[in-house]
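Sequence design from tokenized structure. All designs in this work follow the same two-part layout: the structure record, then the generated sequence. An example of the structure record is given first.
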């Protein structure tokens, strides 16, 4: 048993809304099209010229009291000793109980084989462009950019019929590294670390700025916090 409790703070004052976290997550975790382990909420309110705009990066909240874990009939969705909400594909039956339970829409089910675009044999311009299948074959991988490190703790590409979601890059965290969305953020808006350690970067940020979480009324006790504002 470990004393660590991993969590993340997102400083909305630093976030520039570039979407780099979404892109870096897809490349690090070999996420298929239409799935968004790292995502965002865009809100535009008011009437011109008095318009307010908000950009809120989102991901699995790795809730302390995760409803997806409580409602999984096979324990495929489970909590790690360090507080991460993880998923075991070998135990998953694809029932989607976790998807229905998640109030944040952070869980996806592979209803078909992932990365279908790279099996497409049609070319956009005959004699000029390559089909998705040709690009994949020339790369020597199932998809042109495949990160083999993802498979160190989880299936590199999740198969048809099972669930997938953000793991907070558990394969990187296991080696003492930050999640890739944290490391690749150009403005340093994401802060990752041990919530049980008062000297950690997240705890210092939470002590300095009043935090908030998404859908607090759900009582899930998220491990992703937001400070300041856009």
């Amino acid at each position: 048993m470990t004393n660590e409790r991993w969590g993340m703070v997102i400083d909305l004052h630093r976030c520039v809304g570039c979407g780099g976290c979404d892109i870096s997550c897809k490349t690090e975790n070999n996420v298929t099209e239409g799935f968004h382990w790292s995502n965002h909420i865009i809100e535009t309110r008011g009437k011109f010229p008095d318009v307010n705009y908000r950009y809120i990066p989102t991901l699995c909240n790795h809730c302390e009291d995760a409803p997806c874990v409580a409602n999984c009939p096979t324990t495929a969705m489970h909590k790690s000793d360090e507080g991460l909400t993880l998923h075991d594909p070998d135990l998953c039956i694809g029932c989607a109980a976790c998807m229905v339970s998640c109030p944040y829409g952070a869980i996806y089910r592979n209803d078909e084989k992932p990365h279908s675009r790279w099996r497409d044999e049609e070319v956009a311009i005959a004699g000029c462009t390559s089909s998705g299948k040709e690009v994949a074959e020339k790369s020597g991988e199932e998809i042109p950019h495949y990160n083999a490190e993802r498979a160190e703790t989880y299936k590199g590409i999740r198969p048809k019929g099972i669930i997938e979601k953000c793991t907070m890059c558990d394969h990187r965290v296991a080696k003492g590294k930050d999640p890739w969305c944290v490391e690749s953020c150009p403005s340093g808006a994401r802060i990752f670390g041990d919530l049980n350690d008062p000297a950690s970067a997240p705890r210092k940020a939470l002590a300095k700025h009043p935090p908030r979480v998404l859908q607090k009324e759900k009582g899930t006790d998220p491990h992703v916090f937001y400070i300041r504002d856009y």
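The mean pLDDT is 95. We note this feature because it recurs in several other targets discussed in the main text.
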